[in-house]
Structure formats: C-alpha cells, structure tokens
Write a structure and sequence with these properties.
Helix 3 packs antiparallel against helix 4. This protein has 2 domains: 108 residues, Up-down Bundle (Methane Monooxygenase Hydroxylase, Chain G, domain 1), CATH 1.20.58; 258 residues, 2-Layer Sandwich (Alpha-Beta Plaits). The longest helix has 39 residues. A hairpin with a 5-residue loop joins strand 2 and strand 3. It is of the alpha+beta class. One of its GO terms (molecular function) is translation release factor activity, codon specific. Pfam families: PCRF, RF-1. Belongs to the prokaryotic/mitochondrial release factor family.
Length: 373
C-alpha cells in the first residue's frame, strides 16, 4: 500500500509540472491563439492556417494532459480519505497511484522533447544486415515490436514500402508514424540492433548473432518549408503486390523516386532513392514518396544545424560488431542498451513493444549531456 509520503510527493510533482510547464500562461495563450482561427479569411492562406491549428493543438495537448494529472491527484486524495472509513480497498488505492505516476512521468518525459522536430511524426526504416534468413527474420521481429509500441501509444502507422525476405522475414521496411511527439520518442531507436539466439534456421541448433539497422527521421507536414528542385527529380513506376494470384497489382501503381543533388555543405553528389507501394493509387503513392523525400531533406538540414551535438541519424553506420546500440540476447533473457546501460530480463515484454524504459533512459541521459554543454 502507498504511504502518505508517496501521496505528498505525487502532489509536489504535480505542482512542479504546473510551474515549469507554465500551464496558467498556456491557458491564456491558447485562448488568444484560438481567437486568431476565427477570423473570416483564416483559411485563405492554407499553410499559415495549418501551422496555427497545429500550434493550438499542441497547447491543448499540454493543458489536457495536466488537467488529467490534476484530476487524478484529486481523486487519489479523496480515495486516501475514504480508505480511513473503509470505503476504498488498498488495492484500488495502489492502482490509482500507479496510474497517476505513469501520467506524471509521461509529462515529465515529454518536457524533455523541446526541439521543433520532436513534435513531428516519424519515418522509421528497418534494414536487415548480413546473415540471410536469420537477419531478415530479425528485421521482421523489430517491425512487429515497433508496430506494437506505436499501437500502445495510440499512434497511426502506415507501411510505405516493404521488401519481403527470400525465405522468411523482411529485407527492409519503411513505416510512417503519425502521432504527437512520435519522432521525439522514436529518435532514440536510431542505430544497429543486435540479436543473439539459437536460430530456428540453423540445422545444427547453433547460437547465432544477427544485426538490423533502424533509421528514424522526422515526418514533415505541410507547415514546414522544405525546398525540392523539380529539375532534380525522376520517376519510375512498377507493379506492386504479392508473388501471384489476386494480390498482384495489374496496374503500375508502385512508384520509385530518384532525387540527385549536390549537398550544399559538402559539395558531394548524392542520390536519394524512395519506393512507395502504400496504396493502389499511383498519384497517392507519388504524394507519399514526396513527403518522405521532404522528410529526408529536412533531416539532413537538422544534421547540419546539430553537427556539434550527437547526430540524430548516422546513415554511414556499418552493420557490424561494435556499432550496435542495443543487444537482445534471447537465451540469457536479457535486453541491454549499450548507450545508457539500461537492461531488463523481460525479453517478451520488450518484443511486444514495451520500449518506454529504454526511451526514457536515453532521453534523460541526452538531456543531462545537453545541460552539461
């Protein structure tokens, strides 16, 4: 059962949230910003209007989250009083306390995500490493893990493109994630993920090591300006679908985008290649591919601006020993993050999408490093 000191600390943390998030000022600000959306010609300028609506939505997210915490604290205090009269069970009080702390910790974690790009959605790409079927199976397991994580957080996901494995698993997949702070949370997953297990694909039953890389970039929306030179674009189309039967698309709805450009900072020639088979509508797939291109170019600009700090994405990271960010050792029942030292023995929970402890540890360490600079 919770103690009075725990109840008191929860109230203090709630009051601290109100102070350092400046909730009272946000309430005034959101009223002022909403008034701007009521002017007659508000929607005549689409991009500015969308940016304004996005600002209002983000303010409401902070206020609504705090109000949930404030309400939960009040209910917990009331339940504490009822406990003395025998009107509430200890188990119910403990459950209410656990739910409250989860809400408080979520807000404290979100407060660490202060960069402009943190509030955006995310594009998450998984590539299998060398190792054939075993690595491809590992990539598909990671895909499932992230889809479960997103589902638990209420994020919407769409598979923009997927390349199936030769026998099992996948060679690569690109997933678009739409939800508040999706990039802010998922950016911690950038890097190489290492699996150690007795492989079901090895006839000798040997313990094998496999790798897969995860790259996360912000998913830009129409409120963010990104310059794309149409003269540097080229398109191909292809049929998408399964290996045969009714799932084969008879129309070339799949699109392949190539963007060949010169990096303005390095002077090097570069090419971005994007394939999209998300829908059976070619124009829609082109629109989705362009959104991914803008997301990649936006992320490249971020890398330049943040060059003096830890890079968010390292596209040149090799899939090999020594470069992994996290190891998943199934036989030893251990998942360990090599950047923060955080580890757990609950492998099944992690593979079912329970990534919050790893993400929180990373963000807390990252915030401490930022404060120390």
């Amino acid at each position: 059962m919770i103690t009075y000191d725990q109840l008191k600390q929860a109230i203090e943390r709630k009051d601290a949230l109100r102070h350092y998030l400046d909730i009272d000022s946000k309430r005034i600000e959101v009223e002022e910003e909403e008034l701007r959306t009521h002017v007659p010609d508000f929607w005549e300028h689409q991009k500015e209007a969308q940016a304004q609506m996005k600002k209002v939505k983000q303010l409401h997210q902070w206020i609504d989250s705090y109000d949930e915490v404030d309400k939960a604290v009040g209910e917990l205090q009331l339940a504490w009083d009822f406990l003395k009269e025998g009107l509430v069970e200890e188990e119910e009080l403990d459950r209410m306390y656990t739910d409250l702390i989860a809400k408080i910790e979520d807000m404290e974690l979100r407060n660490m995500l202060r960069r402009e790009e943190d509030s955006l959605g995310a594009v998450l790409k998984i590539n299998s490493g060398a190792g054939g079927t075993e690595s491809q199976d590992w990539a598909s397991m990671l895909m499932r893990m992230y889809l479960r994580y997103c589902e638990d957080r209420g994020y919407k996901t769409a598979i923009a493109n997927i390349l199936e494995g030769d026998e099992a698993g996948i060679k690569s997949v690109t997933i678009e994630v739409d939800g508040p702070m999706a990039y802010g949370y998922l950016k911690s997953e950038n890097g190489v993920h290492r699996l150690v297990r007795v492989s079901p694909y090895n006839a000798q039953g040997k313990r094998m090591t496999s790798f897969a890389s995860v790259f996360v970039t912000p998913l830009v929306d129409d409120t963010i300006e990104v310059h794309v030179d149409p003269a540097l674009l080229s398109w191909d189309t292809f049929r998408s679908g399964g290996a045969g039967g009714q799932n084969v698309n008879k129309v070339e709805s799949g699109v392949r985008l190539r963007y060949q450009f010169t990096d303005p900072y390095t002077g090097e020639k570069e090419e971005i290649l994007i394939e999209n088979t998300e829908t059976r509508d070619q124009p829609k797939n082109k629109e989705n591919a362009m959104r991914q291109l803008r997301s990649i170019l936006y992320d490249k600009e971020l890398q330049h601006r943040l060059a003096e700090q830890r890079k968010i994405e390292d596209g040149k990271m090799k899939i090999e020993w020594g470069s992994q960010i996290r190891s998943y050792v199934f036989d030893d029942r251990r998942v360990k993050d090599h950047r923060t030292g955080w580890q757990t023995s609950d492998v099944n929970a992690v593979m079912d999408g329970d990534l919050d402890p790893f993400i929180k540890a990373y963000l807390m360490q990252f915030a401490q490093e930022q404060d120390g600079e």
